[in-house]
């Protein structure tokens, strides 16, 4: 699984004080289907928490599960009321699904994303996160903000697994 967080040119996650969801660059970002498939589940009823406040029940998160050609794809921490699809609906890669929010126990608006593999264990059907790669993206930077001002490197990449701490622009 990976957390996607939008940042500005200086690597900041938000403008202003960061006390409102709207301060965060990830807030209300459109989420697209990464593969053709069928929507298995949509949860779109939980309120968005204030940044750094979280909720008492970490399971109180809006999410969407898409069963597709690339596997089972999990999108979590969606904005309440933003779902554009329903369970059972067939979707095409690139189709709008929902928007980034701050439901659940996230500390600020971002997308929790995973590709899952289903398996059977002791009579139970379980899912586990599996590695995935992006078809096409631009590597924007290799430095974290704590290491100083960001320097853009603009390297195009294909079929590469993203590593922790990378800042990428997905095309």
Plain-language structure description:
This protein is an all-beta fold and 171 residues long. It has no helices and 12 strands. The chain has strands at residues 2-4, 30-32, 37-43, 63-68, 71-76, 90-91, 96-99, 111-121, 124-129, 134-141, 155-160, 167-170. Strands 1, 3, 4, 5, 6, 8 and 9 form a 7-stranded antiparallel sheet that branches. It has a 3-stranded antiparallel sheet with strand order 11-10-12, with no helix packed on it. A hairpin with a 2-residue loop joins strand 4 (63-68) and strand 5 (71-76). The radius of gyration is 17 Å and the shape is globular. The relative contact order is 0.21. Mean pLDDT is 81; it is low at 141-147.
Secondary-structure-based class equals mainly beta
Percentage of residues assigned to helices: under 10%
| Radius of gyration over all CA atoms, rounded | 17 Å
Residue-averaged pLDDT: 81
Distance between the termini: 20 Å
Judging from the principal axes of the Cα atoms, what is the shape?
A: globular
β content, as a range? 35-45%
The oligomeric status of these chains comes to single chain
Q: What is the count of DSSP helices, taking H or I runs of 4+ residues?
A: 0
Largest beta-sheet characterization: 7 strands, antiparallel
Number of beta strands: 12
Low-confidence stretches: 141-147
> What is the H/E string?
EEEEEEEEEEEE
């Amino acid at each position: 699984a990976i957390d996607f967080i939008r940042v500005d040119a200086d690597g900041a996650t938000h403008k202003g004080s960061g006390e409102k969801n709207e301060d965060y660059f990830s807030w209300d970002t459109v989420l697209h289907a990464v593969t053709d498939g069928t929507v298995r589940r949509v949860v779109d009823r939980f309120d968005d928490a204030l940044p750094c406040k979280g909720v008492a029940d970490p399971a109180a998160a809006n999410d969407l599960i898409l069963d597709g050609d690339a596997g089972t794809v999990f999108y979590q921490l969606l904005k309440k009321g933003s779902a554009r699809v329903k369970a059972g609906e067939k979707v095409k890669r690139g189709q709008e699904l929902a928007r980034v929010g701050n439901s659940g126990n996230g500390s600020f608006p971002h997308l929790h994303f995973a590709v899952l593999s289903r398996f059977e264990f002791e009579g139970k059907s379980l899912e586990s996160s599996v590695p995935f790669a992006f078809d096409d993206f631009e590597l924007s930077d290799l430095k974290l903000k704590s290491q100083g001002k960001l320097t853009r490197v603009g390297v195009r990449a294909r079929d590469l697994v993203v590593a922790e701490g990378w800042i990428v622009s997905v095309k």
